[in-house]
């Protein structure tokens, strides 16, 4: 296991020679290094050597893919320099020799190494360690304005990290653009009719994630030729509007008739029956039905010729029909592709407009801008001079994750140095260090293309550099590495994997290493309907368990049991990783670990609203800003924030129903003695927080709720000990998000609640080093642990994708060779068969790359688990591959329960809350006066809310004073302001001019706060009414205004006219224009109805 593993330009070399070349900043190299080879160690060592050679910190550019990796590089560099500053001279010499210097040179440089730490601390500029996108952003800031304008980018654009935030608005603007264009509308209607509204929307929105490939393909004419028409592949279909028309050609039609007659003359029943079906198909008026009917008569559903049929010309007829059916698939794919292209272009235009209006640029914009700057003939020279003057060393980490566009930008810059005398640049090229491992390329969904690694090797060779390979790992124990070598040698022998070189490890490893397989969970025999019938289930207390969930839970419990056993034997929970390709398996495992009170953590980013604590607090905020939302209030009351019981909620519900009030009103109106201590506390706090919600920004309100409500202590006491740190972290994340979200622009709690519920906001989970780490394989990349479990290893990964885009982009090409929209990979047109096969091979390779990444995370012990699949996958699964490895230990049967003492921290005693005495306040702060404009606005909002509630009732005047009072409380009005609101509401509801819009024979329909999409924005109409008008109808758009003469203000008139136009657009095509009118009017505080002129 410790043989030769170092190569330079394919030749085996000693370890010392390998590191002499790899760490020499004067040489350009590409290093292909296996997992655990020390890629970051090599990269930072090369930075160290460059600094020793006198290169200034700011002249070193190190590029990686994540902020986390960049931070790790900075930390590693400064940590080393601090150590070298404090260590002995002899230790410095040893470290330099390990980094490729000969002993004499190391002694000369040792004093310089000791002073590097101080040099960097005193330097005004640091080493440039950036992500790809951070470097591209730096280039974009130097771009001329005309370039930014050409690319549709605003100057000083703010980086948009999550495009999902803009998709809803882009979609609304897209729908408006489609509705305004008859041809686009026809395309969209055809797409929705064929694929369904939701599928069509997702298919189109996914183009935003692939827009770089789409736009480059469009610019180079690739889109048009990606899915050609059937006639382009076979001249037999030239001149036909549809390939099925070929069935009417004399040659095909006569052949089919002859076959039908020959079969009909036979004496057996089967030929006669199929002859009748064939004859019936030929009489079909529709060409496509004729083809399908004829094919069904002669062939099975699987497409094979039917048995017991024999007639002259039968084989030729079947061949004709097959050919026509294939051409039909090509024809339909061509039409749908062209339709999608037209619609996608409009969607991307609207997406670009949304970005520009908000001053944003996404990651793809940075890449496009960098490529434009580095490839442009005029700009490239100017930019090259700037880069030549600034950068002497370029280092790129994890290069296998580079996408073709990033490589195009890099190669445009670095390739200019190729050739004698610095090539086209005429300058000495910088030292180039590229390191990565194609075997760990698992990010195709992020456009990573491992083929760029080969392109990088060629470029470095052209620059006079060397190509290095390291297959020696310091991470894995011999037993683990033997399994890795066995699995991938076998895959290579099957030609399922490319070149794989056996790995070696350090001699005298502290652990021999073990690979184990937990007994697979077998799928039971399929039950009959009667056997599968379940008894009655109380759905309120007994959750539904699907059979598949139970199987997955059984696997998870086996894994959890073995983890508990290892912990009982002295293994720390933090030494254990559990990996899975899908998060679903990890969620089930979390439940199993929770049952055993074992601590666990999910270090990867998670969706904030998935946390129960966050949902509780958001429900509380919703109840505060919308008191009529009884469900949100019930949620908050039942949560640990208040700790109300089921009996408390039942009593409150009964009181609300008896009084015809909402829960918030019922809680406020019940006598003190009728409330439990939990509800008494809730009423006191809710009343105070509702007042605070009217005057405090969201973060300050949340901060007060957390403090006054003792949320941290209450959740710490309520949740199991193993979940305590995560619960508190979620509360902190919500507080931070309220301040950081969109620059804190959500000025009211109501808007914050809407943003939290509308957007899938993610938060970075805190790492708990003392807990079992639950990670996806992608999330575990770059990490390692003594013990690694891999779950769900016998599942299929070859399911065909639907409504997707098939893209082929060779690394050396300036744009994709193919960009094709396909509805299903199970039915691709013949023109795309080769592209799809190449894509499947790439996915199969990446599937094995995922196995490589997962296995090489384990230092000492590697454990596999699995559940038997529904169907046997076409490709061999991870479970099957590891099952063939000799020496794998079988962990049979259920794991024995761990002793209670070893159950981990979760078995600790429950947390007890202690009350501190209240701190007396020196003085109460005087509340600032509220500006008159703000007061008037709040009165207007209360009137709007009251009219919204009242006009929705059969009798708007029934209980109107109580309703106005509730609205007044919601907006914090004092008695005089409430009286003013009552006066306005009464004038409106009793107005003769307004009465037709409330009730009467002419009233057909009415709605309040009606949402409408217009111009890419959502508008809300105060009241929309449909009145009968002879044979037709009138639509009235009503806008409540407290002003006595709102029609005199131009801004109000423009706003109402916009509402009216939005209603007209919404009604377009739904009702005859001759019989419908759309009118608009203001409803003033005096009850007057003032119509807006047409």
UniProtKB/TrEMBL annotation:
It holds the Pfam family UvrD-helicase. It catalyses: Couples ATP hydrolysis with the unwinding of duplex DNA by translocating in the 3'-5' direction; ATP + H2O = ADP + phosphate + H(+). InterPro entries: DNA_helicase_UvrD-like_C, DNA_helicase_UvrD/REP, P-loop_NTPase, PDDEXK-like_dom_sf, Restrct_endonuc-II-like, UvrD-like_ATP-bd. Residues 506-782 form the UvrD-like helicase C-terminal domain. It is an enzyme of class 5 (isomerase). Its EC number is 5.6.2.4. Residues 12-477 form the UvrD-like helicase ATP-binding domain. ATP binds at residues 33-40. GO terms for molecular function: 3'-5' DNA helicase activity; ATP binding; DNA binding; exonuclease activity. GO terms for cellular component: cytosol; DNA helicase complex. Keywords: ATP-binding, DNA damage, DNA repair, DNA-binding, Exonuclease, Helicase, Hydrolase, Isomerase, Nuclease, Nucleotide-binding. This is DNA 3'-5' helicase. It comes from Caldimonas thermodepolymerans.
């Amino acid at each position: 296991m410790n043989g030769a593993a170092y190569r330079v330009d394919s030749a085996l070399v000693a370890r010392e020679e390998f590191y002499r070349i790899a760490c020499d900043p004067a040489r350009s190299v590409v290093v292909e290094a296996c997992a655990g080879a020390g890629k970051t160690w090599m990269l930072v060592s090369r930075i160290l050597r460059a600094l020793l050679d006198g290169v200034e910190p700011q002249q070193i550019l190190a590029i990686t893919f994540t902020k986390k990796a960049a931070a790790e590089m900075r930390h590693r560099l400064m940590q080393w320099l601090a150590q070298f500053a404090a260590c002995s001279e002899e230790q410095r010499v040893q470290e330099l020799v390990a980094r490729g210097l000969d002993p004499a040179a190391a002694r000369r440089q040792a004093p310089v190494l000791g002073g590097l730490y101080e040099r960097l601390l005193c330097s005004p500029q640091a080493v440039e360690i950036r992500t790809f996108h951070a470097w591209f952003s730096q280039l974009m800031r130097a771009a001329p304005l005309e370039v930014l304008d050409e690319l549709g980018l605003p100057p000083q654009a703010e980086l948009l990290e999550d495009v999902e935030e803009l998709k809803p608005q882009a979609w609304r603007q897209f729908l408006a653009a489609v509705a305004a264009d008859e041809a686009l509308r026809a395309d969209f209607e055809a797409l929705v009719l064929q694929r369904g509204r939701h599928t069509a929307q997702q298919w189109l929105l996914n183009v935003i994630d692939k827009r770089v490939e789409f736009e480059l393909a469009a610019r180079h004419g690739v889109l048009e030729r990606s899915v050609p028409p059937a006639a382009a592949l076979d001249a037999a279909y030239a001149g036909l509007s549809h390939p099925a028309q070929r069935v009417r050609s004399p040659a095909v039609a006569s052949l089919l008739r002859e076959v039908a007659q020959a079969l009909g003359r036979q004496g057996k029943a089967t030929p006669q029956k199929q002859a009748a079906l064939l004859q019936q198909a030929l009489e079909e008026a529709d060409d496509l039905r004729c083809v399908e009917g004829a094919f069904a008569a002669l062939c099975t559903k699987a497409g094979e010729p039917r048995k017991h049929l024999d007639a002259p010309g039968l084989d030729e007829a079947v061949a004709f029909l097959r050919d026509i059916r294939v051409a039909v698939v090509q024809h339909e794919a061509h039409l749908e592709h062209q339709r999608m292209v037209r619609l996608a272009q409009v969607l991307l235009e609207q997406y670009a407009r949304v970005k520009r209006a908000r001053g944003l640029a996404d990651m793809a914009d940075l890449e496009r801008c960098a490529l434009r700057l580095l490839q442009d003939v005029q700009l490239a020279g100017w930019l090259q001079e700037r880069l030549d003057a600034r950068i002497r060393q370029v280092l790129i980490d994890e290069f296998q994750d580079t996408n073709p566009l990033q490589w195009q930008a890099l190669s445009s810059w670095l390739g200019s140095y190729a050739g004698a005398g610095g090539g086209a640049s005429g300058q000495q090229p910088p030292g180039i260090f590229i390191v990565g491992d194609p075997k760990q390329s698992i990010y195709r969904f992020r456009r990573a293309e491992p083929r760029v690694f080969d392109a990088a090797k060629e470029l470095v060779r052209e620059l006079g550099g060397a190509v290095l390979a390291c297959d020696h790992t310091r991470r894995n124990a011999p037993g683990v590495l033997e399994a890795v070598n066995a699995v991938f040698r076998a895959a290579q022998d099957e030609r399922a994997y490319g070149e794989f070189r056996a790995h070696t490890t350090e001699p005298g490893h502290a652990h021999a290493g073990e690979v184990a397989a937990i007994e697979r969970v077998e799928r039971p025999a399929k039950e009959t309907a009667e056997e599968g019938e379940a008894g009655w289930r109380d759905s309120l207390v007994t959750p539904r368990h699907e059979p598949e969930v139970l199987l997955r839970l059984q696997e998870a419990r086996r894994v959890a049991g073995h983890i508990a056993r290892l912990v009982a034997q002295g293994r720390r929970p933090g030494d254990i990783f559990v990996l899975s390709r899908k998060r679903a398996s990890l969620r089930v495992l979390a439940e199993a670990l929770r049952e055993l009170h074992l601590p666990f953590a999910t270090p990867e980013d998670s969706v904030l609203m998935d946390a129960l604590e966050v949902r509780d607090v958001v429900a509380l905020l919703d109840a505060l800003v919308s008191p009529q939302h009884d469900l949100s209030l019930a949620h908050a009351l039942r949560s640990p924030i208040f700790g109300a019981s089921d009996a408390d909620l039942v009593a409150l519900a009964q009181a609300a129903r008896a009084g015809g009030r909402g829960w918030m009103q019922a809680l406020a109106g019940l006598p003190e003695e009728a409330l439990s201590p939990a509800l008494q506390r809730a009423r006191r706090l809710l009343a105070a927080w509702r007042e605070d919600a009217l005057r405090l920004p969201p973060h300050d309100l949340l901060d007060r709720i957390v403090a006054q409500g003792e949320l941290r202590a209450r959740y710490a006491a309520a949740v199991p000990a193993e979940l305590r740190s995560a619960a508190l972290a979620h509360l902190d994340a919500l507080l931070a998000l309220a301040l950081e979200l969109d620059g804190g622009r959500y000025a009211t709690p109501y808007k914050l609640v809407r943003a939290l519920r509308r957007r899938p906001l993610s938060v970075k989970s805190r790492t708990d080093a003392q807990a079992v780490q639950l990670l996806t394989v992608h999330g575990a990349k770059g990490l390692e642990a003594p013990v690694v479990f891999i779950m769900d290893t016998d599942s299929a990964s070859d399911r065909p994708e639907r409504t997707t885009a098939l893209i082929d982009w060779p690394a050396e090409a300036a744009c994709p060779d193919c960009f094709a929209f396909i509805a299903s990979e199970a039915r691709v047109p013949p023109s795309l068969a080769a592209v799809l096969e190449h894509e499947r091979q790439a996915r199969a390779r990446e599937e094995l790359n995922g196995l490589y990444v997962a296995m090489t995370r384990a230092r000492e012990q590697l454990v596999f688990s699995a559940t038997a699949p529904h169907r046997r996958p076409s490709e061999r699964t991870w479970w099957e591959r590891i099952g063939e490895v000799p020496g794998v230990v079988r962990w049979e049967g259920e794991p024995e329960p761990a002793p209670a003492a070893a159950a981990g921290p979760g078995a600790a005693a429950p947390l007890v809350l202690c009350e501190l005495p209240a701190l007396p306040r020196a003085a109460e702060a005087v509340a600032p006066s509220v500006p008159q404009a703000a007061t008037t606005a709040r009165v207007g909002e209360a009137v709007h809310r009251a009219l919204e509630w009242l006009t929705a009732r059969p009798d708007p005047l029934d209980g109107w004073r109580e309703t106005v009072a509730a609205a007044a409380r919601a907006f914090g009005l004092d008695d005089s302001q409430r009286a003013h609101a009552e006066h306005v509401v009464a004038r409106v509801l009793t107005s003769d001019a307004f009465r037709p819009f409330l009730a009467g024979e002419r009233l057909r329909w009415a709605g309040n706060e009606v949402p409408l999409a217009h111009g890419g924005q959502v508008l809300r109409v105060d009241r929309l009414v449909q009145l009968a008008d002879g044979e037709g109808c009138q639509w009235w758009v009503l806008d409540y205004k407290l002003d006595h003469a709102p029609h005199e203000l131009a801004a109000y008139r423009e706003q109402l006219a916009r509402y009216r136009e939005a209603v007209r657009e919404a009604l377009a095509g739904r009702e005859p224009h001759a019989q419908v009118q759309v009118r608009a009017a203001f409803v003033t505080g005096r009850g007057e109805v003032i119509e807006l002129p047409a």
